[in-house]
Write a structure and sequence with these properties.
Layout: E1 4-7, E2 10-13, E3 21-28, E4 51-53, E5 81-87, E6 94-100, H1 118-122, E7 126-130, H2 135-139, H3 149-164, E8 170-180, H4 182-192, E9 202-206, E10 213-214, H5 215-229, H6 235-239, H7 243-258, E11 276-277, E12 299-305, H8 310-314, H9 327-333, H10 338-346, H11 353-379, E13 384-389, H12 408-412, H13 417-423, H14 429-432, H15 448-467, E14 481-485, E15 490-493, H16 498-502
Parallel strand pairs: 2-4, 6-7, 6-8, 8-9, 9-12, 10-11, 12-13, 13-14
Antiparallel strand pairs: 1-2, 3-5, 5-7, 14-15
Helix pairs in contact: 5-7, 9-11
């Protein structure tokens, strides 16, 4: 039978247990961010009387209709919500994992099927998966609005966990915050955010993106969105703008950047928004300088993938170079000058333009930020573990490789996750045109080797959330042990390497600084 739990705001009724897991969906942790609350910090939930039905996912944050979430203008405003998954017997003081979804700060939802956490729950965790404001609503900068609203939503969700998770069998003193891509960038920002201090004791960051904005740069983009929407670049100007019009204006600015080869990463990717180093919520750049690496009292596990950018180039989610003449533009977007890029290219002899730019942006966007954040955290005295995912997907005749997000179904122990990644989101459209392929990706999962790899990764992530130790040594001042995940695992010492060493010369300051 269904279970009722009383939270601080009122009772919630979850689904009947399935395979030993009970789910509570769409529980609000903050008030709908509309009307006078729009572009403002998250506000408390209005308590309700009786029992609120929590058996269906809530609406999701406004985002492009082409996303995997099915958002439409009629979806509803009550989307600052979370889902709770608990063992059906509601153990007392179980470790808690809070999942923050990715999606380039502009798309996604915590309730997507690819984030099904039953493998974690069956191993004893209580899992909380959250929604937060996206796109301009969450990260756009404009006079009169607070910055980093999407990140502030995440802090509000963590406060909800501290106050309520014990009622679901979780231990508020053993909370791990975890995320991938923009979710990993959120984890890095939360580790550096004073307002998040004390709300979690462990953190998992999978593929940390390395770009942040200054306030001035973020407001310059906000002004361009305002011009595209034909409203003043003020809080009042945006207050009455329907979400669908705001999305249209954002899309127009993305097109402007794509048409301008001098606009760096904005000319290659569709991402307009990033965390803002505002001196308030986010006082430091997470990757370098004072405060880099965040709170050393939090145990940290960082993973990245060996072929991150293959997802974006192979899936046509980003521009691809048309030949060698395009390489200088890609080099600048990847933070390298011409001389540095020449040295980088020399580490990949014989590589063509696409392979070079895939490797460049793998390093610049995800790998080096992940390595740098982990080392900064360790150097500050934090317990820090690193891993590298190298399992190569056979999709697209091996072209996908160990691409961005391919680690997710392995970590979640979700055999359908890779198919959902490839088909449910606008990724790898070439796969959809393969005759007879249908909804499946044959040979990808679960082969015996991939299923065994998934079990090993689930075990490590659960062990870390439970004890702070994933099963291999932490970084030390004179050692960088890295767990390598593949068909056969390995533990390597990361020593000198010309390609990695080059990145030590490169700054990861906030864009606009």
């Amino acid at each position: 039978m269904s279970r009722v739990v009383v939270t601080a705001a009122g009772g919630v009724r979850g689904r009947e247990p399935v395979d030993g897991v009970v789910a509570f969906r769409g529980i609000p942790y903050a008030a709908p961010p509309v009307g006078p609350l729009r572009l403002q910090p998250p506000a408390p939930v209005t308590p309700w009387s009786g029992v609120r039905d929590a058996r269906q996912p809530s609406p999701v944050a406004p985002q492009e209709r082409s996303s995997s979430t099915g958002w439409t203008p009629a979806s509803g405003d009550d989307y600052l919500t979370l889902d709770v998954f608990a063992p059906a017997d509601f153990p007392r003081a179980a470790p808690v994992l809070v999942w923050i979804h990715g999606g380039s700060w502009t798309s996604g939802a915590g309730s997507l099927p690819m984030y099904e956490p039953r493998a974690w729950v069956r191993r004893g965790l209580v899992v909380v998966s959250i929604n937060y404001r996206l796109g301009f609503e969450g990260f756009g900068a404009v006079e009169g609005a607070v910055d980093n609203r999407g990140l502030r939503d995440q802090v509000a969700a963590l406060r909800w966990v501290a106050e309520n998770v014990a009622a679901f069998g979780g231990d508020p003193a053993r909370v791990t915050v975890a995320g991938e891509s923009a979710g990993a960038g959120s984890v890095a920002a939360l580790l550096c955010a004073p307002s998040a201090r004390g709300l979690f004791s462990r953190a998992i960051a999978q593929s940390i993106p390395g770009e942040t904005f200054t306030v001035g740069h973020a407001r310059a983009i906000g002004a361009r969105v305002a011009r595209a929407a034909r409203v003043p670049a003020t809080l009042a100007g945006f207050a009455g703008l329907a979400p669908v019009r705001l999305l249209e204006a954002t899309r127009s600015v993305v097109a402007e950047f794509h048409a301008d080869p001098s606009s760096g990463m904005r000319s290659i990717v569709d991402t307009l928004f990033n965390p803002v180093v505002d001196g308030d919520f986010l006082p430091v750049v997470p990757f370098e300088g004072p405060g880099a690496g965040g709170d050393p009292s939090v145990a940290l596990l960082v993973n990245h993938n060996s072929d991150e950018w293959n997802l974006f180039s192979g899936g046509r989610l980003a521009e691809r170079p048309r030949g060698t003449a395009d390489l200088p533009r890609w080099a600048r977007a990847g933070r390298l000058d011409d001389a540095q890029f020449a040295r980088f290219a020399a580490t990949l002899p014989g590589a063509g333009p696409l392979r070079l730019t895939d490797a460049l942006l793998t390093d610049s966007v995800f790998a080096e930020p992940s390595r740098r954040f982990a080392r900064a955290h360790a150097d500050a005295g934090g317990s820090t573990h690193r891993s590298l995912f190298t399992w190569r997907s056979p999709a697209l005749a091996g072209r996908l490789g160990a691409a961005h997000a391919v680690d997710l179904p392995f970590v979640f122990g979700n055999p359908q996750g890779l198919e959902l990644l490839l088909h449910a989101v606008p990724v790898l459209p070439l796969l959809r045109r393969v005759p007879g392929l249908g909804p499946r990706v044959p040979g990808v999962w679960p082969t015996p080797a991939s299923a065994a790899l998934s079990r090993r990764m689930v075990d490590a992530w659960v062990a870390f959330a439970t004890t702070g130790e994933p099963g291999w040594p932490a970084l030390a001042p004179d050692a960088t042990p890295v767990k390598v995940w593949g068909s056969a695992d390995d533990l390597v010492e990361e020593g000198p390497d010309p390609r990695r060493d080059l990145w030590r010369e490169v700054r990861f300051a906030a864009t606009g600084g």
